[in-house]
Design brief:
The protein has 13 helices and 16 strands. The chain has 410 residues and is an alpha/beta fold. Strand 15 and strand 16 form a beta hairpin. 57% of the residues are buried.
């Protein structure tokens, strides 16, 4: 197993997803296994008008405070709210910590694309005087991390990761490296995305990535099903608090799980299609195993990238079957949550930590045993009670970015 010197604990979780606002509502929604997809009025003129939106937040929960919300992109607001929950969950008080030893790393795939789309339309209709002076900070990808820094009073290293749909997982991998390098004592890391817009949705639809089940939104996202036809675009955020295990134990905190290993690789195959058979993703998976000092047979569970697209699920199933032939349990949260792009990897890592902590594997929405396309032990229809000692959370992004996180029991 990973040495104590390289052990990193997950001590806090914050989640805002289409399944619920907060960690516990999200977990409850995931366990119910019902898709959050619905017809989206904002996409009414698009060929595919489905999305997974975050439920309406109460004014108290949604309010950032201090007159700051107006300048923030929506993805930054989600990151701030998720970070607040994660930090409180970890039992940390920003008023008492040494902010110079706190790092923030937040990933996003499309960052403020929604605001650019909106402000471009305003410019076209009324000229430059109608463009918001906050457009640039609403737009640029690093501002989710920047706003979290401001909100928490953190002054350590801050980074923004952009590896498409692996961005949130890349943020966690980067945060782990910062901790082990001694560059911080606490890392607040995750992903945030809010890019459900007509233009972005149309772009994904034109490339054939979205499910066309517009007449039955709740059944549209169906990872690993024989009749899967694409994903449902979504929004969301997850932030995790990471600490060196010795530091967490010294302050009496029990972790949800340990981030025991990470693996990174690149396909260098195609702008959007994965390399056949997941041959380069396998490099990332084996690297995560090696860093955690585990064998493939030690993996009890896989939280799959599972986009519900024909090619991605095929490639990932081949990867799992080849490297993990002992058939660990498999789940895929995008059946419930849709695909939140750059936030997905962080959301799925948080759910993997909860799976380990609560010995419960959530089911894959819209998947039944008789419609399973692959020889995998996919959890279907209802949650499964299972002790999970080691699990992998897999994220694969356009551009060929592969990130595998290996989590173990605390």
């Amino acid at each position: 197993m990973t040495s104590r010197q390289s052990a990193v604990s997950i001590t806090g979780l914050g989640l805002i997803t289409p399944a619920g606002v907060g960690r516990e509502p999200t977990w409850e929604g995931i366990l119910r296994g019902r898709s959050a997809a619905a017809t989206d009025p904002e996409l009414k003129d698009c060929p595919v008008d489905l999305s997974c939106r975050i439920p309406a937040m109460t004014p108290e929960r949604a309010r950032i405070g201090g007159g700051k919300a107006w300048r923030m992109g929506h993805f930054s607001r989600l990151a701030v709210l998720a970070a607040r929950e994660a930090v409180a969950d970890a039992g940390l008080d920003p008023a008492r910590w040494d902010g110079t030893r706190v790092a923030v790393v937040i990933g996003s795939g499309l960052a403020g694309a929604a605001h650019l789309e909106e402000q471009t339309l305003r410019h076209h209709q009324g000229g430059p005087e109608l463009v918001s002076p906050a457009l640039v900070p609403m737009l640029i990808p690093n501002m989710a991390a920047g706003e979290v820094l401001l909100d928490l009073g953190a002054h350590g290293p801050s980074l923004a990761t952009e590896t498409a749909c692996a961005s949130g997982a890349s943020a966690l991998a980067t945060a782990r490296h910062l901790l082990l390098a001694g560059l911080c004592d606490i890392a607040v890391a995750g992903g945030a995305e809010a890019a459900v817009t007509p233009v972005i949705t149309s772009g994904f639809q034109r490339m054939g990535a979205l499910s066309a089940r517009t007449g039955d939104p709740g059944a549209a996202s169906r990872p690993f099903a024989a009749d899967r036809d694409g994903f449902v675009i979504a929004e969301g955020a997850a932030v995790l608090v990471l600490e060196r295990e010795a530091d967490a134990r010294a302050r009496g905190r029990r972790a949800y799980a340990r981030l025991a290993g990470v693996g990174l690789s690149s396909d260098a195959h195609h702008p959007t299609a994965p390399a056949p058979g997941g041959v380069h993703a396998e490099v990332a998976l084996r690297a995560a195993l090696a860093e955690a000092d585990l064998r493939a047979a030690d993996v009890d569970h896989v939280n799959a990238h599972g986009t519900s697209t024909p090619l991605n699920d095929l490639t990932e199933a081949e990867l799992i079957g080849r490297v993990l032939p002992h058939r660990p349990s498999v789940t895929a949260p995008k059946g419930v949550l849709g695909h939140s792009l750059g936030a997905a990897g962080a959301i799925e890592a948080a759910l993997t930590a909860l799976t380990i902590h609560r010995s419960t594997v959530p089911p894959i929405a819209n998947l039944t045993a008789d419609n399973l396309a692959f020889d995998l032990d996919c959890v279907t229809e209802r949650p499964r009670t299972q002790r999970v000692r080691a699990a992998v959370s897999q994220s694969f992004g356009f551009g060929g970015h592969n990130v595998v996180l290996l989590l173990t029991e605390d």
